[in-house]
Amino acid sequence: MEKFKVISVNISEKKGIVKKPVDKIELCDVGIKNDAHSGKWNRMVSLLGTESFDKFSKDAGRTIQYGEFAENITTEGVVLYETLPLDRFVGDQIELEVTQIGKKCHGSSCAIFQEVGSCVMPKEGIFVRVVKGGELKAGESFEYHPKVIKIGVITLSDRASQGLYKDASGMEIQKLMGDFFEDKKRPIEFDYQLIPDDAELLKSTLLKMTEEKCDIIVTTGGTGIGPKDLTPDVVLPMLDKEIPGIMDLIRMKYGEIHPSALTSRSVAGVIDQSLVYCLPGSPRAVKEYLEEIKKTLMHSIYMIHSLDLHG
Q1: Which domain holds residue 271?
Q2: pTM for the whole thing?
Q3: Cα 210 to Cα 271: distance, rounded to the nearest angstrom
Q4: For the packed helices 283-304 and 244-255, what is the interaxial angle rounded to 10 degrees?
Q5: Chain centroid to CA 17
Q6: Of 244 and 69, more confident
């Protein structure tokens, strides 16, 4: 596990001015007490690495002091701007969650920009919110914990669960989701379950996955109008919120090519903090559906976690 060290802690009473190093800061649910940037928003606490200071000092022709970029916490040991939203920094008592990488430059209202005509914070600074608060001083350290995206995959099939044929759809989901998150540089973890077409077993499997905090749950099979097609009937009453637009779009888009797609009763929604997508039971349909679902996937994950970001 990567670690980084706190080099300086800094605060300011007004926005748009440099922050001054202090002996300690008090982190709370709105950020840092007595700091101008505290509040219930994505940018309640800012961090910047000494690595960024070294580069900018050369460009500026002078030594930049800690706090001059208006960062609350100056660090050393991890390239902060390579972290991702929802990653966490865990200390002995304090826990912080990344909410944003970089920001829009304030230009002329920024003190450092007024002096040298540019600023490193918009590109290399990051922002976090406080998960667990407490007192923080220079010299303390944090462990970097990348957010692991947990994905539940449930295949419903009497015959596949009996070993009569291979579950190609469940494998396709894992391949496509694996490729998607690899491209996003996100570590993932799968929970794969192959079950018969049984309503109670589906419900208990879904409940277990939501209790274990799966970020995404994808089912395949049982979305049609046959006598054993039960997936939407089980899932819909369990949803806290339905997301109808995704499945409506997919049905219309592919229904023109494959009219049978219009008989699919696929649903999407949210249970607690788990995104749930119920797909048909063929590899081709899985590929078509996920191609559309992936377009809003990261944005949906951020929204569930109260981050106003676009994935």
Answers
A1: 149-304
A2: 0.90
A3: 7
A4: 150
A5: 31
A6: 244
pLDDT band, residue 119 (cuts 50/70/90): low
Structural domain includes residue 213: yes
Q: Are both 181 and 281 inside the same structural domain? A: yes
Same structural domain, 97 and 186: no
Q: Which residues contact 230 (CB under 8 A, 6 or more apart)?
A: 156, 197, 199, 202, 222
DSSP state of 1: -
Assign 260 a pLDDT band (cuts: 50, 70, 90): confident
Task: Kindly write down the DSSP assignment for every residue of 174-211, as one continuous string.
Answer: HHHHHHHHHHTT--EEEEEEEE-S-HHHHHHHHHHHHH
Instruction: Assess contact for 139 and 6: CB atoms under 8 A.
Output: yes
**Domain tally, the chain:** 2
Cα–Cα distance list, 159 to 41, 86, 193, 292 (Å): 50, 39, 14, 28
Has residue 309 been placed in a domain? no
Flag whether pLDDT at 227 surpasses 90. yes
Which two tokens mark 274? 């788990």
Whether 10 contacts 66, CB under 8 Å: yes
Q: What is the mean pLDDT of the chain?
A: 91
Is it the case that residue 133 has pLDDT exceeding 60?
Answer: yes
Angstrom CA distances, 79 to 45, 48, 74, 148, stand at 17, 9, 12, 19
